[in-house]
Amino acid sequence: MTEMWQIYRQKPGWRVALTSGKGGTGDWKAFNRSLDDVYAACAAWKSALGEVKHPWLCWSVNGEWCALQQKLILEVGWTPVVGWDPNCSASRPPIVPGAVAIDFNAPFGFPAMWAHFPLEFAFLWAPCLAFWHSDLLVRINKLEQLAALFRRLKDGEFAAVRSIGGIRNTLNWRTHRYWELIGCTTRSASEHQFLHGCGWWRNFYLHPNAPPDEVRRRSRYWYEHGVGIMYWKRRYRRRVINLDERTVSEGHCTRIGNPNYRTDDDKGKELAHNFDLSKEAARLGLARFLD
User: Fold this and answer.
1) What residue segments make up the domains of the chain, in order of their start?
2) Which residues, listed in sequence order, are joined to residue 262 by a DSSP beta bridge?
3) Please, which of 71, 102, 267, 272 could form a disulfide with 61 given CB 3.0 to 4.6 Å?
4) What is the rounded average pLDDT of the residues 15-38?
5) Residue of 218, 241, 21 whose CA lies nearest to 148
6) pTM score of the predicted model
7) Per-residue exposure over 257-268, b if at least 16 CB sit within 10 Å of its own CB, e if not
């Protein structure tokens, strides 16, 4: 376990996601529900989404931050689809007019749920699905460019941030992955990933659709989220547009590279403790969206 997770395992709120709530975080090794239950849930999510053509998943851990994200998404012509982690004290966030709220966890009642869960099954409930981190803010001009790129994706294509974990891991290709900092999937891309046993969830070698003759080989890959997406691209030669993390990194309010970062039992409080939303919005030219 990395040093970061050793720290978080000591925090009650995070410990839930790493223990009793692990099944809702997107991990095939921990998931013990029937896929029929998932399919039924997806039907409900699809009904809640309605006729939305360009949904963008905003996963809330902090209501104020999520409300700002919703406004930014509306500004670039997409529809915010708001989900939330029940393990955060704020729970259901404010819903901005024009956004769609979906309680993704209602059919399951997991102690914790992360965005990876509904993202894995996007093809069953959305025509396409953009997504980003709960702690990410992006300048409007850059967000407009990304939203336009996502609109241009052909069905079967996919866009996300490529991560190799730094220069030291360049040759350690089994750890390379795509991660959910920001990106967009199309219905056919999501479906192809699922049918071939790849995708967003951890331990993708245990995916129910993993080909039996590949399970042993896949088990040698890193367990982390998004490794299956990288495997999908390479194994099946699929079209993936690599997004440059540097394009949006200035607005990623994370512990990465922050020696003074303080952890907290609650992810929403942790975000607020370490970053002042009004200051971050002003720094990125987004202050008007807080009015």
Assistant:
1) 3-50+63-290
2) none
3) 267
4) 86
5) 241
6) 0.93
7) eeeeeebebbbb
* 270 Cβ contact partners less than 8 Å away, ≥ 6 residues apart: 262, 263, 264
Average pLDDT over residues 123-133: 98
The token duo for 202 is 């951890």
Place of tokens 């029940």: 86
Structure token digits, residue 194? 């699922």
* 8-state DSSP, 228: H
DSSP annotation string for 39-82: HHHHHHHHHHHTT-SSEEEEEESSHHHHHHHHHHHHHTT-EEEE
Question: Could you write out the DSSP letters of every residue in 180-207?
Answer: EEEEEEEHHHHHHHHHTT-SSSB-GGG-
* pLDDT digits 0-9 by tens, 64-120: 999 999 999 999 999 999 999 988 766 789 999 999 999 999 999 999 999 999 999
Q: Which amino acid is at 214?
A: E
